[in-house]
Amino acid sequence: MTLRGRKKGETVPQGVVVRLPVYFRYLTELESAGAERISSAQLGEALDFTAAQIRSDLSYFGSFGQQGYGYNVADLLDQVKQILGIKRDYSIVLVGAGNLGKAIGSYEWFRDEGFHIKAIFDVDPHLIGNHHAGCVIRHLDDLAIYLAENPADIGIIATPKAAGQSVCDLLVEGGVGSIWNFSPTQLTVPNGVIVEDIHLTDSLLRLAFRVNEQTRAQEEC
Amino acid sequence: MTLRGRKKGETVPQGVVVRLPVYFRYLTELESAGAERISSAQLGEALDFTAAQIRSDLSYFGSFGQQGYGYNVADLLDQVKQILGIKRDYSIVLVGAGNLGKAIGSYEWFRDEGFHIKAIFDVDPHLIGNHHAGCVIRHLDDLAIYLAENPADIGIIATPKAAGQSVCDLLVEGGVGSIWNFSPTQLTVPNGVIVEDIHLTDSLLRLAFRVNEQTRAQEEC
After folding, report:
1. Which of A101, A133, A185, B181 fits a disulfide with A164 by CB distance 3.0 to 4.6 angstroms?
2. At what angle do helices B51-59 and B14-32 cross, to 10 degrees?
3. pLDDT of residue B62
4. How far apart are CA A84 and CA B151, in angstroms?
5. Which residues in chain A are closer than 8 Å to B106, comparing Cβ atoms?
6. Ordered DSSP codes for A69-96
């Protein structure tokens, strides 16, 4: 794939990376609703970005829009998917089959977009052998052997905090290059291994902060 | 509470808000490990922020550190908690008692830090009447009456996408001013209502993007 408009080796700014999934979600909804085209001004209004911001983001990957017409929704969505790298399949192993792991495993959207959970691991003897999301739950002790035979693109860590780093080490030793981490711990990984964290506590703390900002602002009025 | 160093009505930049929970997590770990003091250089190295960034963030709320000594860990954590607004209790209602809702309800950290889930709601007749996280699961039809008698600070939405907006409307009508949203939908709320989203799909898409960035970079080498 060639990304038009980008120089070789040029990395995409973090702000663009954060906004890409937002484009993806909205364009998916537009396409499902049968919309055929949208202007950057309309996109901007719907997503609360400026039209200039949107044109700048998308032009980063090449020029898609047409003056006076805007963007073809299906084409733009296709391009956004290509940029995001979801026009391919990903093999995933999930470690942790508690409530959170089960919730992740049941999320149909992942499968629909090519993210396939191939195996689930846990240490709880009550869970081993059970089925979830089309997989049998295996013992964590079998992870290394499994990965040797079945390479995985992404490892999901949905364990308690105490197990997060050791599970991460097992995944990395097994050749997994990308970690989606739900355990509330800061993982240490070798260079080149990608970690994307979901820190529930951080999100709740940001919410609390904003509640208090609002309370303070009201008190100051 | 007075926030030293901030002008009346001044809002805190988004970047600082995002970093505050990171300080909170790390300082909590330091305190548990028995550390008494830390320099801004050490904090910076541990968190991958520059020392200047850290001094700037913290000075935003007043000056805490002492030249040549650094920060007292307990004092700094206490100040960060105060800034974050978690030196108080929050009453929470949780809507959605599926795997994700159960995972959120079981998260002990929330309770330890003053976030108390007081009631859980769902529409699944198999779940109504069951107990989880010390609460009986009630029918969503009872949410309005419950909130009229038991005001809540935060509403957590852990429902499927289709129910997200209608549950949000019920919470807002019931006087809930802050929403922690796990449903994969963009909520519309009246001015003044705070929404903090956990978009699992966005996070996974960012991971996929980074995997592909890496692949492209390797191909270009």
Report:
1. A185
2. 100
3. 64
4. 42
5. 98-99
6. TBEEHHHHHHHHHHHHT-SS-EEEEEE-
Taken in order B141, B144, B148, B153, the sign of the CA dihedral is: positive
Domain ranges of chain B: 14-84, 90-201
Mean pLDDT per 10-residue segment, chain A (221 residues): 47 80 90 90 86 81 68 89 87 96 88 92 97 95 98 96 96 98 92 94 91 80 68
Q: Output the CA angle A129-A131-A134, nearest 5 degrees.
A: 135
Any idea which fold A14-84 has? Answer: Arc Repressor Mutant, subunit A (1.10.10)
Paired sense of beta strands B135-139 and B178-181, if any: unpaired
Instruction: Name B33's Cβ contacts closer than 8 Å, sequence gap at least 6.
Output: none
Q: Residue count of chain B, please give it.
A: 221
Alpha-carbon Rg for chain A, nearest whole angstrom, is 21
Interface ipTM = 0.85
CA–CA min distance B21, chain A (Å): 5
Q: Which residues in chain B are contacts of A182 at CB distance < 8 A? A: none
- When CB atoms are compared, the residue of A83, A178, A215 closest to B207 is A178
How high is the pLDDT of residue B216? 76
d(CA A191, CA A168): 14
* Positions of chain B with pLDDT under 50: 1-5, 8
Please give the CATH architecture assigned to the domain spanning A90-201.
3-Layer(aba) Sandwich (3.40)
Q: Which of A22, A104, A203 sits opposite B196 (nearest CB)?
A: A203
pLDDT of residue A10: 60
Distance from C-alpha of A148 to C-alpha of A153, rounded to nearest angstrom: 13
Give the pLDDT confidence of B91-120 residue by residue, as tens digits. Answer: 999 999 999 999 999 888 888 889 999 999
